[in-house]
């Protein structure tokens, strides 16, 4: 179901001078190497996330979220002390290392003249956030990769007593699972824990290349010279539009019933990815012979033998890619491709990926040549509880013109669990996409 278009919000945020928060206790001064998986050029960026919190009447306004989270951050950095360090390049090939000397992370205190309910009424809890620069101040130099703080956190108090927690992490240090692990640890410390329930594990050498490195699998995500009509159409548009879609039990059931019985027992990820990919391509009205691509992130921790240690927070994600032509992409074929592509991810696939990265000198993954999906709904960023209860909505913050989608958990006002998916398309294609998807749900309602 398409969610309403957000209304413009105008508000003022007053920020205090950014400060560096350092670990609360002395930590080791040492050099730590990142893995070859971490050291990809495509990861030299920052991962942002946002959580919205209501006021908690039970606290009676006695606790200040800024003070609580600032203190918890210092305590958490004792355990995650590499995140308080600085990235450097080492050697002729520029391999990344972390200089751990307790230099600290950026923390910004802020106040906004707006209520939490204003965001709700404006349908502004979901990405993309046009006001992101207000609730996550881009401290000068903070977007650098080298010799800069690896984390940036802003806590913005709202007029009603609620607050917004906005966060940015250098992607070379952690993937989505690692970021979520850190945020849960931070929340535990904010609620009074003496140590995180899950202890962080470094051991980045586990994801270094083999000796000698050897590519044993096909990795379409790194293909060069790809001609992609889908990408060209979107890039040629002067304007693209974002819409968010909510898929609860009813919507997922309606999608599942579109498939023959032998395919209906697929996972929610497979179902949703296949349907969105198919209807997205159909909305663009491509030539039937045009090649179309789907890439998605796959947490590979469990595919290693033995699995990576619990608490490993480095990058351990594969991005396998499915190929089809627009004309062949029926719903059934899309689902089979998703399932087949997901099954490619094994320990050997990951080892082959790492070796390819080393052999080819850290090539970029060609995200722009595929529809990219990242499923984070099982992480439930809304479960990050600093003592004010769960976030009303939490997840990655998408900005700019992004072709891909995140699957994010959300509980709507009726208490229904579901998944919110942001979609980006040219305006006319978006109209077609909405009509197609809404017709499925209306048809399911009439059948029921």
From TrEMBL:
Q: Does the keyword Lyase apply?
A: no
Q: Does the keyword Zinc apply?
A: no
A Gene Ontology molecular function term of the record:
transferase activity
Superkingdom in the source lineage? Eukaryota
- Any GO BP: response to ethylene
Q: Which InterPro entries match?
A: CAT-like_dom_sf, Plant_acyltransferase
- What keywords appear on the UniProt entry? Transferase
Annotated family? Belongs to the plant acyltransferase family.
What's this protein's name?
Answer: Uncharacterized protein
Source organism per entry reads Camellia sinensis var. sinensis
Taxonomic lineage: Eukaryota, Viridiplantae, Streptophyta, Embryophyta, Tracheophyta
């Amino acid at each position: 179901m398409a969610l309403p278009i957000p209304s413009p919000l105008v508000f003022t945020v007053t920020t205090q001078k950014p400060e560096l928060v350092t670990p609360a206790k002395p930590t080791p001064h040492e050099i730590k190497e990142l893995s070859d998986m971490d050291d990809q050029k495509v990861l030299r960026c920052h991962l942002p996330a946002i959580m919205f919190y209501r006021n908690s009447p039970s606290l009676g306004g006695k606790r200040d979220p800024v003070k609580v989270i600032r203190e918890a951050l210092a305590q958490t950095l004792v355990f995650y002390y590499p995140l308080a360090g600085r990235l450097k390049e080492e050697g002729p090939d520029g391999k990344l290392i972390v200089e751990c000397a307790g230099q600290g992370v950026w923390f910004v205190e802020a106040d906004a003249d707006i209520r939490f309910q204003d965001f709700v009424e404006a349908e502004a809890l979901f990405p993309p956030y046009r006001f992101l620069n207000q609730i996550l101040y881009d401290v000068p130099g903070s977007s650098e990769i080298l010799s800069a703080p690896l984390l940036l956190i802003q806590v913005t108090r709202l007029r009603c007593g609620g607050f917004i927690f906005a966060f940015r992490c250098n992607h070379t240090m952690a993937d989505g699972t690692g970021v979520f692990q850190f945020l849960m640890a931070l929340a535990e410390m904010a609620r009074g824990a003496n140590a995180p329930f899950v202890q962080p594990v470094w051991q980045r050498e586990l994801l270094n290349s083999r000796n000698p490195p050897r590519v044993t699998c096909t990795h379409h995500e790194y293909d060069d010279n790809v001609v992609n009509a889908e990408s060209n159409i979107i890039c040629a548009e002067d304007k693209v539009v974002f819409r968010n879609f909510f898929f609860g039990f009813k919507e997922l059931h309606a999608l599942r019933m579109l498939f023959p019985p032998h395919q209906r027992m697929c996972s929610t990820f497979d179902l949703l990815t296949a349907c969105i990919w198919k209807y997205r391509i159909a909305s663009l009205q491509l030539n039937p012979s045009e090649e179309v691509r789907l890439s998605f992130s796959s947490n590979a921790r469990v595919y290693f033998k033995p699995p990576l240690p619990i608490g490993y927070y480095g990058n351990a994600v594969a991005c396998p890619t499915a190929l089809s032509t627009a004309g062949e992409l029926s719903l059934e074929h899309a689902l089979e491709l998703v399932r087949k592509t997901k099954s490619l991810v094994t320990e050997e696939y990951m080892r082959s990926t790492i070796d390819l990265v080393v052999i080819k000198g850290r090539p970029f993954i060609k995200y722009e040549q595929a529809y990219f999906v990242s499923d984070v709904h099982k992480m439930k960023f809304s479960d990050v509880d600093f003592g004010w209860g769960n976030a009303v909505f939490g997840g990655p913050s998408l900005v700019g013109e992004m072709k891909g989608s995140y699957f994010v958990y959300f509980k709507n006002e009726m208490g229904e669990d579901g998944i919110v998916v942001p979609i980006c398309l040219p305006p006319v294609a978006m109209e077609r996409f909405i009509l197609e998807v809404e017709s499925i749900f209306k048809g399911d309602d009439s059948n029921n």
